[in-house]
Specification:
The complex is a heterodimer of chains A (116) and B (251).
Chain A lengths: L4 E9 L2 E10 L4 H10 L5 E12 L1 H16 L3 E5 L3 H9 L7 E3 L2 H8 L3
Chain B lengths: L2 H12 L29 E2 L8 E11 L5 H10 L10 E3 L10 E7 L5 E11 L3 E7 L4 E12 L2 E12 L2 H29 L8 E8 L14 H10 L1 H6 L8
Antiparallel strand pairs in B: 1-6, 2-8, 2-9, 3-4, 4-5, 5-6, 6-7, 7-8
Classes of the chains: A alpha/beta (116), B alpha+beta (251).
GO molecular function (chain A): anti-sigma factor antagonist activity
Pfam family, one (chain A): STAS
Protein name (chain A): Anti-sigma factor antagonist
Chain lengths: 116, 251
């Protein structure tokens, strides 16, 4: 129902695709997120860069679960970095951290994905 | 401003909307009639921890915008949440209403006259939406988001469930009519919300999408926490508890 208020820029780093997230991630971000994910192409891992995240509600968390399903379907790993302490706790609370590897830096995420 | 500078602002903006981190649920009080059988000490479960196929179910009803604003509607819904449920089901709201981190007990009417005792935690709440998340043993692992938004001259009211059946037994039950029953439950709930705001004949639209057809067989052990099994045992043991009151669980 909500309008998209986030941007997802795609970069290729080795065999991984990095999605630089900026703005507010809500349920309204679905189309732009999935378009960015498709834009990452044939990668072994998708890394979400949350350093530019302004805000995320429960609709945004739901989107990440949907993205995780798509990534698993393609045997891709899903990782994240740049999360503030607040959002790290949200990932833990919602138990997304059990499926999405959380790292401090892009280098750490790339190394964990074997894509450095 | 660097990215790192932006993070505290993000945290401040919505920190109050999210529940605080908890490893296990704790029920503050058990109202009369509620049964705290399947909530205390349980972990929350997202769809990632569930067993069955993943579904996204969306129920929508549209009201004239002049009748109620999204913020007014959500404020009322949070305050009177259980009153909009179909008859025979009970939502034991905390005294504070629906606030982030609150844990509420539920009694759900099941086929055959049985009652399923379970609960939810308020994961997120703001002026235009709130989200309830389920604990281990609930019929599904996931969350339900209730929201309202202005679209043109209408207030669009929505319930959206993102879920997997928690275990093989619930997956079977959902397949054998449980999904239909759940669709009816939320459809009636939204209809009751619409009626409260003067539109008893409003049409509730339902959209069901299977997000993931795969079942997560590695999660079959979730059945250990099944609220259905534990609720049934609790009912069967009722006569025994009646003569040995010291064995009553927290209720």
């Amino acid at each position: 129902m909500a309008e998209a208020t986030a941007t997802f820029d795609v970069r290729r780093q080795g065999t991984a695709g990095v999605l630089d997230i900026r703005g507010d991630v809500t349920a309204g971000s679905e189309d732009v997120l999935m378009k960015a994910y498709e834009g990452a192409g044939d990668v072994t891992a998708v890394i979400l860069n949350f350093a530019g995240l302004s805000y995320m509600n429960s609709g945004g968390i739901g989107l990440l679960v949907t993205l995780l399903v798509r990534a698993r379907r393609r045997s891709q790993r899903l990782l994240a970095y740049g999360l503030s302490e607040h959002y790290r706790q949200i990932f833990e609370l919602t138990r997304l951290d059990e499926a999405i590897g959380i790292h401090d830096t892009e280098q750490d995420a790339l190394a964990a994905a074997g894509a450095a | 401003m660097s990215s790192n500078d932006e993070q505290p602002a993000a945290a401040n903006r919505d920190a109050a909307n999210w529940a605080k981190l908890v490893s296990r649920l704790k029920v503050a009080q058990v109202p009369d009639g509620a049964v705290n059988l399947n909530v205390d000490g349980r972990q929350l479960t997202s769809p990632i921890q569930g067993f069955g196929k993943m579904w996204q179910k969306t129920y929508v009803v549209r009201l004239p915008g002049e009748r109620v604003t999204p913020t007014e509607l959500i404020a009322t819904w949070r305050r009177q949440f259980g009153e909009f449920w179909p008859k025979g089901n009970h939502f034991y709201a905390p005294l504070t209403g629906i606030e982030p981190g609150d844990v509420a007990l539920l009694n759900l009417r099941m086929p055959g006259g049985t009652t399923l005792s379970t609960g939810v935690m308020v994961l997120y709440a703001d002026e235009e939406s709130f989200t309830l998340m389920t604990p281990q043993g609930h019929m599904f692992a996931g969350w339900i988001t209730f929201s309202a938004a202005r679209q043109d001259d209408e207030t669009v009211v929505q319930s959206q469930v993102l879920m997997r059946a928690s275990d093989p037994i619930f997956e079977l039950a959902l397949t054998m009519g449980g999904h239909r029953q759940e669709d009816l439950f939320w459809s009636q709930t939204l209809g009751n919300v619409a009626a409260h705001f003067g539109h008893p004949d409003a049409v509730v639209e339902t959209k069901v999408v299977c997000v993931d057809k795969r079942r997560q067989w590695s999660r079959w052990r979730n059945v250990w926490h099944s609220s259905a099994i534990r609720s049934t045992i609790y009912m069967v043991e009722a006569p025994i508890r009646a003569i040995t009151p010291h064995k009553r669980p927290a209720a």
